[in-house]
Amino acid sequence: METFTEPKELVNNPRYPEQRQESLAALDESMIDIPIRGLINDINSVNCCFTLQCCYGHFVYNSQNDTHNFEPLPHTVEIDQVEYRIAYIAFCIENSASGRSLITSLERITKIDPDNIQFCSAGWFWERQVNSYALQVEPDRAKHKDEVMLDYREAMRVEQIRNEFFVRLRELF
What is the model's pTM? Predict the structure, then answer.
């Protein structure tokens, strides 16, 4: 799944309440990464948005092959390359004053590190659900990809940014 496209303008969506209700009814909490389950529940309690998909962001390396690993990167010199699997939350946002305010707040989160956090429209999500957006943590050079190989030092930096990203989202919601 490649999420990044430039943010689109909100459009009228009279079916938003129905779509929100359907999406929340179909939500399977077991598919949400454990570290962000509470956050996703908090986001979905806000009437002007609902989540479409999310990922905590995972680091895979020579001695850690679990593609859904939640463990922090170890402090070691024995890791050269790390496969980073993108952290993101895809939202559907209502075209309303509250929705526009939320978009402004989500855009501010990119200021944590604009080289590694993007607010975007989610191209293939938009085809299925208008007014869909994603907030993602990914080095800018790889913003169109789901995963990227990082050297260990950059992976440590991305992990720090990802952690701050989720702290700020928790504060927002």
Answer: 0.94
What phi-psi label fits residue 57: left (phi over 0), alpha (psi between -120 and 50 degrees) or beta? left
The token pair at 48 is 């002007």
Question: What is the tens place of the pLDDT at every residue in 15-68?
Answer: 999 999 999 999 999 999 999 999 999 999 999 999 999 999 999 998 888 889
Q: In whole angstroms, what is the distance from residue 19 CA to residue 78 CA? A: 48
Is 153 buried (19+), middle (13-18) or exposed (0-12) by CB count in 10 A? Answer: exposed
Buried b (16+ CB within 10 A) or exposed e, 65-95: eeeebeeebeeeeebeebbbbbbbbbbbbbb
Q: Of 1, 108, 94, which Cα lies nearest the Cα of 47?
A: 94
- Structure confidence at residue 78 (pLDDT): 87
d(C-alpha 158, C-alpha 84), whole Å: 9
Amino acid at 52: L
CB 124 within 8 A of CB 132: no
C-alpha 31/C-alpha 88 separation (Å) is 14
Q: What are phi and psi of 172, to 5 degrees?
A: -65, -40
